[in-house]
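Researcher: Next entry in the queue.
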Amino acid sequence: MNLTYQQVIDFVASKVRYKTLSPFIGLQIPVFAVATLERDIRNAVDSLLPVDAVWDSREVRFVTGAMAKYGLIDAQFTVSPSMLQHDYQQGKLLLQALHFDIAELLDPAVDIEESLTYSALEMMYEELSSSKAWLKLFLRAEAHGDAKLSLPVDYLPRTFVIEDACIANSTYLWVFKHFYF
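Model: Structure for this entry, 181 residues:
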């Protein structure tokens, strides 16, 4: 990519689309097993999901690791980008509301190549160049706190609560808002 960091910021701010999905927030999702995660989530939110929503599966070790250590599930479905034609948020203020440190990038003392904010914006730049959209759900339950990132045998079944939900044209929008890596 042969763009200046300012061009990357401006492109991302102008192209990003984000819509909060309030009807999902607060819903309780009983999760019975990692193997049934998609079915468990779909059963609880099916009436709210767009008909074209396709589960975006992840490697099981990442799902179980986030569940074991933090009590989190970061789920997403691919959906039609047409869902972001109206009533969306965008711009630098949105990025700042999602905890992107845009001011950091304007500081001449900051090494852009070492900036986590700039790295995330570069990844978003690539995604925003494609016409895709994702419905994202951020669920939380009591954490096990296991640094080994493995679920104890008796961890599931467990009820998770949707704390955040959106449709966006980038999977990286929550990288700082819900930072748990």
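Model: DSSP finds six helices and six strands in the chain.
Researcher: Noted, moving on.
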